[in-house]
């Protein structure tokens, strides 16, 4: 038995790689294709159109192939509405639910295509119909993570009525933000890259966009704290995401002049080691939290201080290796994830600085259209983060302790 | 002004490095020492005794030096009782609280030395007095992490009345468990090391001890799952600590024959990607948890299955990058840490397998006397874990997907 | 001024990525394209044909674009003969010489296309005409590295008359040898991958092909020496490439039972350290080389021993960090490179085992059509080697000390 | 049978770790010790003296133990002259030759102790007697690597008459150059460390010492070339050691504004790739070498240019992965090693910048007393280099492309 379905692709599908991935997927998965129509884009700005029949041995094989094609931008021809099925229970999805990519996605309901809110990968799509009728305005489709699914939610299943728009290669070059390359720019001069990142930050700021910075403790150890604090003060950072550890190291530096017990000025090791770390948490706890400690004058400098003073919101997520934690730290993983999700959805540019855990958590929630800069001294970390799928990303393997001062110099001192 | 205090060291203090570290600390911290008495151990089994006066410019300097000496095994001569101070509030420690090492530690209360329960680093020591009087039996000293401190707890402050016993170099060689070397045995033949680890596991089992295994998802991806499951089944594992991700991958393999969507037998990628992962969580949630899913026959193989079938307790700790999570996963970081702490305190041998986050969380709670094996393909991970201070540790940079089958072969097939 | 040239592509150019790379290159380099004809391959086995006009502002820009298109498989339409220019001096190339890729390449001379011998990247193409006339048989085109260029050599310049055939996506799947993916299979179960590699080796052997193994010293330290020796003995290895260090460690193990002074059986360190290493070189030198030492009975086991006994040729290349070196080691870098080049050109399958330097040296000389397996515990090494451009490559991040025994078991014990 | 020998240690042997290592070695190697006399240094500046009898089962065991003690600073009591034996052949050492450490070493000949010239590890010691008699001035002892040994050379065998002086812990603190710690200062702020390194360079310059810089190609890729060139121009670098690749990248940047084909200013990739690299070698070859190319005005900037202009000598060592190489490159490994050896012996401070191969080659020739700074973005490289045994070393994991500009700023701009 052979089964078949017809799919269509449209756009800059050759140079963006969609066509290649679709042909490849059919062959890799044991199917066949028959191109029925192919209209190549003859110029840079002309789009290409392809309609092809996809054949497979079994319906199951065909569905698997069509799922893959769908995720790479193909839509089933002769569109029908998406299939909706009620979730059988809280946190339980129907069999064969549609699992999202992080690309812009459209779902067909009552004959109309609706863009989904907050594209995010590995979610279900839940459709809500308003009370007043079947007009587009009354239908809302959005991503929901598994633990947000409630009994009765109308969840999209199968591939019918779904359209995904993978990122297309920009027509005007992409500047330093490479197109889906996932590679690490280790062969590019560090200072030039930093100045491009600065340019991007300036641009986002001018357009009143949101720069989200994701921070690891190495920022403090390596000597990048003052530079980051000045970037917050000068308005280049609009939102901060970190773990308990980053905040404690930053605050310890203010209270004791040390970071994990090392005097960051004299480089001398007062040999009180971890004690300052615990003390810091204890003192902030006594004050009632970071904001209270700033108000009481206990804390007078640093990244967290500037966040409080300049009204920059932050999320501190807890982890099982934390000391304390601080009263500000969200210890429940789901609650923390939800707070991070909100930050991610609002960001126009994300700087991931020397933290794998928090960068992955943020990256999981990002649509593929958000510009991302990932800086780490470990190339494996940079590669892993870029592979998660931003269409426009810069990866930079460098020392955060020299990166941040040079970035701040570029943005602030050179004005 | 010069201030001075007299300290004593006793034991195999030369070859264990304590004497060198104490002399070094005094010099590094700007102090002077005068050795008043020195009786060298003339043979391997004879102990060395040293009494020295330590001098510093200021009382603060002297205290810092004495703190450091104390942590390296020196005790203040002419011992007095430890100073106890009530915690001013919940989760707040008194100024100058004593921050613990992970070595066996004794505290002097009412003229008697009491060993502290559950040595663990970066904790406070809390002393509890029984109702009946001042006999040793009525006094209990134990470590408490900051968030467990309650208002009124009697917390040890300063260094007086504290004795630390850093590990001594074993007199009879240490086998493959090196003495405090913190190095990684990358130059040692892998098969020989595996057989030594097997020997150690056999020994712990014969003595009815507890082997705790800390598991990362790479175990499933790299093909070590069946071997680990058989070790659980055969009784070589007594306790398991992991994250939500490890359990889901293990269960997905049973439900769908895939791990993150890759068919682990045929190596083919069914291209359903992350969908199986989410499904698995959804299905286990529907069943009501892992145990219920095993009982219902939904799950019939794997590491988690064998844990349920063989009554091996496990802790699954949540993190902000989790999908789901499973109903079994503890999402609150503090609650999860407390569960891990209990596992760590009971363990006689800990195998840390391909996970940095969970290994650090377990390692934070371990006394320096617990034997530890750390296996990871990333040498940086192994080094970081060994540096946290087990006195007897094996670090092995290898592929978990070949390590576990060879270990299982050694323990099970070769009987 | 606008200049233009017409180029053609033919083959499986969509799914192999050539079309996407060509469109991308034109846009990235500031040019325009006009597709004049496009005949899509409608089925898996049908080829696609594209003819397009490429436009640029200046002749220099156009040449740069056409160079790039050429390297990705496009040929200038209306073909003319390649331009040949005599090398002005030994080791000096004419201005604008054609620098090769490692793909199969054809050059047009006297109206005929000639495949070049030994495709290798970053070389010049030198054309030799025989005495007898202009028939194809009398023309020979081959790659020459810079230092082999002799005054008067006819070197190809420009892009005219050059055709490159980048690898096409295999129509029948590629098994575990991925198509140009350059990725590392760290998420695939190790044992399954090993058995696929064994299958490939068996196949090459049955077809009387040549397996070249490139060896690093870690093979001996990590315990893979006996397994590799048995593979040589059983005829699975046809050629060996290594450094002086690998050979010395292998021989030291035979002479002293140690590797860099560590007893590889008992794991005890006889504490003679590097002395055995120097002794070994001294003893082989006294005997007059490895073959002489085997004949004299001084050496009786190991990888080098089996090479001698089984007539497996080897190249030992010297480096500036060597001790000694052995009399067999080629200390001149150019001479060593030439010997390695010969090995690489003859190989049908290359196993690169735990050495970056020697693997890069071999990889530099390989055509893109040679199957390659790269095994290292360091993912960065594996990635770097795969990026150099084999079309069919397996990268495996694992421990060579467990990999080789499992491979030998698969090939030898399981017969 | 029990055999015994008496050894002595003297100096700051407790805090420098020598005493601990000697006791440890005796126990690890199955021996026993009896301390016969022990006079502890009571103050920081007082030395400790120890005389102990070492016992073992067999003469062979005893010799192995005494060898180990000797390498850690113990000398056999009741000293006799060193045993000298003639080398049986060129490049062949007598059985039981003494293999050197990299510490200052003394050998007893004709009743007098003679310091050996050029301490270097893994060498033989050759003693030369002058014509005029047995006075100290007429005896010369020096290290010789295996390939420099000539038939008849008087080579020291056994341990008798040898005294090694392992580095002692400095009495006045060591500044940022840690004492034998072999660790990497990842927890120290990058900018502070850079300023300490600058201070050290300034000091060496004031004392007319020699700063040797060892350079990898990443310096050019990452954007550190101009800064390094300015350091050469300003007289902070006295000697340079690198491979062919570094020099070609530096020269290509001058000739074409690219580094491996990437335009380092505009960040655009002219897509000529490796062609510029080969061209550069060809052009320098045509000119007759780097100096000739500078004189002819072909080369007008960069690190190599400044070396020529400022008379800074350089060694370019070849390797099997080189293109070309340049006429200046020494292609024979032994010849290159000898040139590197001379550089190493003359250096007072060595900066190892982003190259493992060349840093190891230099490090192999350094005495343990030479100050060393090792900078690399890969922590494994830094660790490996520090482990080779400089007593005073700084390891810094950072980006060479930001490190060099900050270092140059510190040294040049801030004057």
Automatic annotation (TrEMBL), chains A, B, C, D:
Q: Where is the signal peptide?
A: none
Q: What positions does the domain Arginine dihydrolase ArgZ/ArgE-like C-terminal second subdomain occupy? A: 196-407
From the record, give the transmembrane residue ranges. none
- EC number(s) in its UniProt entry? 4.3.1.12
Ranges for domain LOR/SDH bifunctional enzyme conserved:
5-103
Concerning InterPro entries, the annotation shows:
ArgZ/ArgE-like (IPR005239), ArgZ/ArgE-like_C_1st (IPR048964), ArgZ/ArgE-like_C_2nd (IPR048963), LOR/SDH_bifunc_enz_cons_dom (IPR007545)
Q: Which domain of life is it from?
A: Archaea
Quickly give the catalysed reaction: L-ornithine = L-proline + NH4(+)
Recorded protein name is: Ornithine cyclodeaminase
Q: Which organism is it from?
A: Saliphagus infecundisoli
């Amino acid at each position: 038995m052979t089964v078949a379905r017809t799919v269509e692709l449209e756009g800059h599908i050759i140079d963006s790689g969609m066509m290649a991935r679709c042909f490849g997927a059919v062959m890799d998965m044991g199917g066949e294709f028959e191109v029925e129509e192919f209209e190549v884009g003859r110029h840079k700005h002309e789009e290409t159109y392809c309609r092809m029949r996809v054949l497979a041995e079994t319906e199951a094989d065909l569905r698997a192939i069509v799922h893959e094609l769908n995720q790479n931008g193909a839509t089933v021809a002769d569109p029908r509405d998406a299939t909706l099925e009620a979730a059988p229970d809280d946190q339980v999805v129907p069999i064969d639910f549609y699992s999202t990519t992080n690309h812009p996605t459209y779902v067909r309901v009552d004959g109309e295509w609706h863009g989904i809110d907050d594209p995010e990968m590995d979610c279900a799509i839940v459709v809500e119909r308003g009370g007043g009728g079947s007009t587009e305005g009354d239908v809302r489709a959005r991503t929901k993570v598994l633990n947000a699914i409630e009994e009765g939610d109308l969840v999209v299943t199968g591939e019918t009525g779904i359209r995904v728009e993978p990122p297309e290669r920009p027509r005007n070059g992409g500047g330093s933000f490479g197109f889906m390359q996932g590679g690490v720019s280790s062969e590019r001069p560090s200072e030039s890259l930093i100045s491009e990142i600065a340019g991007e930050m300036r641009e986002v700021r001018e357009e009143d966009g949101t720069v989200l910075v994701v921070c690891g403790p190495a920022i403090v150890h390596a000597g990048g704290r003052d530079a980051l604090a000045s970037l917050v003060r000068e308005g280049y950072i609009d939102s901060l995401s970190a773990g308990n550890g980053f905040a404690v190291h930053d605050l310890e530096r203010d209270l004791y002049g040390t970071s994990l017990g090392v005097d960051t000025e004299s480089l001398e090791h007062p040999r009180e080691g971890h004690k300052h770390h615990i003390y810091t948490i204890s003192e902030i706890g006594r004050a009632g939290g970071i904001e209270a400690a700033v108000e009481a004058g206990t804390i007078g400098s640093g990244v967290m201080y500037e966040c409080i003073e300049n009204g920059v919101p932050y999320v501190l997520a807890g982890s099982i290796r934390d000391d304390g934690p601080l009263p500000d730290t969200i210890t429940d993983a789901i609650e923390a994830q939800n707070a991070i999700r909100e930050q991610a959805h609002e960001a126009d540019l994300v700087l991931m600085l020397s933290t794998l855990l928090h960068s992955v958590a943020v990256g999981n929630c990002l649509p593929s259209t958000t510009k991302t800069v990932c800086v780490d001294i470990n190339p494996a970390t940079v590669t892993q983060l870029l592979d998660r799928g931003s269409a426009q990303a810069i990866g930079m393997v460098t020392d955060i302790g020299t990166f941040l001062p040079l970035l701040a110099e570029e943005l602030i001192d050179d004005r």
